[in-house]
Model the fold of this input.
Amino acid sequence: MSTTTQLRSLNIDNINPHVKTAEYAVRGLLAIKSEEYRATLKDGKGSDLPFDTVISANIGNPQQLDQKPITFFRQVASLLENPQLLEHEDVLTGSLGYKKDVVERAKWLLSEVNSVGAYSQSMGAPGIRGSVAKFIERRDGYPSDPSLIYLSAGASSGVNTLLHIICATPNTGVLVPIPQYPLYTASLAVLNAKCVPYNLDEEKAWGTNLDVIKASLAKAKEEGIDTRAIVIINPGNPTGASLSEQEIKDVITFAAENKLVVMADEVYQTNIFIGKFHSFKKILRDLQKETPGKYDNVELASLHSISKGMVGECGHRGGYYELVGFDKDVVAQIYKFVSIQLCPPVIGQCIVEMMTHPPVEGEESYELYRREYDNIFEGLKKRATALYEAFREMEGVKCQEPAGSMYLFPTITLSQKAIDAAKADDKAPDEFYCLKLLDATGVCLVPGSGFGQKDGSYHFRTTFLAPGTDWVGRITKFHKEFMAEYKD
Ligand SMILES: Cc1ncc(COP(=O)(O)O)c(C=O)c1O
Done:
């Protein structure tokens, strides 16, 4: 028995075992090692390393990777944090160059929240929920009820709330796409509930395949699992897919027929490069109109966030989810559950307000807002395309065209020699590849095994947020050398 075990109440064998079971590769071994490399370089001790910078392509953290905050959001936020500045409007609109609409928005938000240092209502400030509802109405062309909009500390906190409500017993199952953002599997593990995996169809641009979903549900049923919900991530993480209207209709119909809650994770809704984003809420309302009765009781929770898109304010922790079709007693329990956390961060709520109610044409801040927004979008698109082109040239690498979100998720064909070497090193083959890549280039990716993947297939996920293209060249060069070293 270790000294720690004897002296303290907690040790690794008596804490909540479900926390230990949970896995979250996005910040796992590779990320930790990359941070060690970064610290070594910062201390000026990395002269023996084969690279001089670490590129964190493992995480969708836009402003960590040089995406600039949108000026309107930050100017308003600065006034919210320090309202005394509003006593010097002449200085603000004079030498500091704040526009009048910035000052007005800050005053309005302060009138709604009183102070960003104060708690708000548990589900978020009413005026801000009103702005979110109007945004949803403009987006979808259907009404949205502010009393069913819950502001949250990022979409993660919304997912956490919803899964707490859904996961009633260790036998409760939730259908989760594979590959998936590991928030879902990790949260289900912590809640001691069952992940019911369904594979996405890589050959069809990582779309949903209804036959596969049906088979997963049937298999879960045979195993005695009580499946209560289906998670959809659209646009996809890690896949970069963007679902068609028909795919969404099929999922909603499937959910209606099998009485499943639909959790639509739509945090990447503005990161769309091919086609158009279709919200689950709009498609559900369309279906309800087309076929009265059939879809009346579909329960949909759709989530959005300030973390992604051109906003990229993930450090501020803001998001929301809209509930549609839930029983009112269940909603009351959701309300109670979020009340236990008091409220989401109020500054994050204010940024949700600005994301959903940005400056519009004719307002003074519009031009700069539009320019900044478009520049970020074009930059992301350019880097996504450059990376995609580079992957297409690489031996044994197959990649879907970037359609949405912030990631590419190519397949890598690894030789038996590489697979054996990984096994000897007690690593998954794609983890082995990514570790070698990190050691050789300083570029940190996430192996496909961290998201789940079809047995026998290997992938890695990279964001295309990192500035410049030098790091893409590093990957290409490494890949060539790796393939040569591990040739069968
Ligand atoms: C699909 C998906 N959902 C949710 C989140 C969490 O976002 P937030 O920062 O809003 O909690 C992420 C973050 O990467 C994500 O990729």
Notes: The longest strand covers residues 226-233.
